[in-house]
Each structure stands twice: as C-alpha cells, then as structure tokens.
Amino acid sequence: MKRSFTAADGLAATGVDLEWLGRLLTRVDPAQVPVREAPRWFRALWSTGIVAVAMPWAVYLTPAMMDRYETAAEAPRLGRLLVHELAHLEQFRRLGAVRHVTQYAYDYLRGRLRRKGHWAAYQSVRLEIEARGIAALVMEGPR
Fold first, then answer.
1. pLDDT score, position 16
2. What is the mean pLDDT of the chain?
3. Per-residue model confidence (pLDDT) at position 135
4. What does the pLDDT look like over 15-57, one tens digit per residue?
5. Rounded CA gap, 121 and 114, in Å?
6. If you write DSSP's letter for every residue of 45-79 in order, what string do you get?
7. Cα–Cα distances in Å, from 7 out to 13, 31, 103, 125, 131?
8. How far apart are CA 111 and CA 124, in angstroms?
9. What pLDDT sits at residue 133?
10. What is the pTM (predicted TM-score) of this model?
C-alpha cells in the first residue's frame, strides 16, 4: 500500500504556520489535500531530479521524500516543498486548468526555444517563480 498523509499534517510536522499559509493561499485547504507516494509508472514520466508534482487533486512525492517525512529528516526542506506544491494548486484554481497548463507550457517552451537547457527553462517558468516566492515567504513566517 502506498503511503499518504494530508498536506496539513505534513506542514504541521515541519513547523509551517498554517494560519499564515492560509492568508497567502486562500483557495487551498491543506487539510483537504492528500499527499501521496507517487507510483513508479507516474515517476517514470518525471524529469530526473523532480521530487514532487502537484496535480489538481493531490500532491505526489517520491519514496525518498516520503521517507524524509516519516523520519522527520530535513523538515524545513519538506515544508518548503509542500508549500511550493500547494502554491501550484492555488495557481491551478485561480487560473483554471486550460490557462494554467497553457501558461506553464508556453513559458517552458519559450525558454527552450531561447536555447535554455531543461532546468534553466523550468526555473524561468513564471508559475514556478511565483511558487518559489510563496514558499520562501511562508517559510520566513508572518510579518
């Protein structure tokens, strides 16, 4: 059986302030978002180095990231990662499926057409930049 927990449980275990998160991500309730171990067939579709993927219905982690959750290893890294993935769910709900996928793909392909490598193109996707910014802000805590 694959391992799972709620995003709220994962965030609480990593010390993320859920009230602060709720003020920044108003369309996402971490208690309603399952975090699941990604099946092997799904991980086979991911680029090398990807450890988590947000889908509209759940966040999927690699087995290694699930191990880190279960052992409380690297709690700040896991907290930042979960916030980042929840930010993608917020984007998806704000933009809708078609706009979200279109914007993401457009930005990535634009980077590749500008001769950026995979990781540089990925890093330049506006939705990724926004998700990294939200994760950094949440991890800093309320002001």
1. 94
2. 95
3. 97
4. 999 999 999 999 999 999 999 999 999 999 998 899 999 999 9
5. 9
6. TSPTT--EEEETTEEEE-HHHHHHHHHTTTHHHHH
7. 10, 6, 25, 24, 16
8. 7
9. 97
10. 0.94
b vs e for 12-39, b when ≥16 Cβ sit within 10 Å of the residue's Cβ? bbbebbeebbeebbeebebeebebbbbe
* 44/93 Cα distance (integer angstroms): 26
* Domain ranges within the chain, ordered by starting residue: 4-140
What is the amino acid identity at position 39?
P
3-state secondary structure of 98: helix
CB proximity list for 136: less than 8 A, separation 6 or greater: 80
Question: Is the pLDDT confidence value at 89 over 60?
Answer: yes
Query: Which alpha helices (DSSP H) does the chain contain, by range?
Result: 7-13, 18-24, 40-43, 63-71, 75-95, 97-113, 118-123, 126-140
Cα–Cα dist 25/86, whole Å? 8
